[in-house]
Amino acid sequence: MENNLTTIGFIGSGNIGSQLARLAIQNGYGVVMSNSRGPETLIDLIDELGDRARAATPEEAAEAGDVVVVSVPLKAIDAVPAAPLRGKTVIDTNNYYPERDGNIPELDDESTTTSELLADRLPDAHIVKAFNNIYADHLTSKATAPGTPGRRALPIAGDDDDAKQTVASLIDQFGFDVVDAGPLAEGWRFQRDTPVYGPEFNADQVREGLPQAKRYAEMD
């Protein structure tokens, strides 16, 4: 299997996490699912996913995953366990919704980004921003094979080139082209209300849309 990955851990098993788990299973990976409410609340999802899936605590999912997906509401990132994620590639799918998360001053004044907040809490992990600009149901319904004309593309951002390559390989396997938006600090270019947040863009359209992104202060 590419990159010698066998298992993907999930901290958060909501809409995006469960859809990514389905893609992972379809592509031959094992998954370890977790949420804040306990493994027993994931029985139905595990039954659906099958023999290559199991439920666990967030700490166990973080420990088990060769790559770990963090897909929890932004207000809950303080609960993401740091120790078992040391040295690992961590995919951050989060977006900032003040009506859900409450106001976070450093995001409101745009002095940092959602993924940089997570990176601050996981200083020894390699954070890659991905999968936050696509509707959850599109992850499984819009995936296509490499080389498909007009194949949808997803942007990524991160500070570690090896981690970004790992995530890019997964995204390609899962059914999408990849556009590298640059370092983690550039992840804001595909956050909510930007040109590439939501639309079914191919790689050229994503590359065109990223530089057109405006800071929220500039939208007022």
From TrEMBL:
Keyword field contains Magnesium: no
InterPro entries registered for this protein in UniProt: NAD(P)-bd_dom_sf (IPR036291), P5C_Rdtase_cat_N (IPR028939), STEAP_metalloreductase (IPR051267)
Residue ranges of every copy of the Pyrroline-5-carboxylate reductase catalytic N-terminal domain listed in the record: 7-96
Keywords assigned: Oxidoreductase
Organism: Arthrobacter parietis
Presence of the UniProt keyword Oxidoreductase in the record: yes
Domain of life (superkingdom): Bacteria
UniProt name for this protein: NAD(P)-binding domain-containing protein
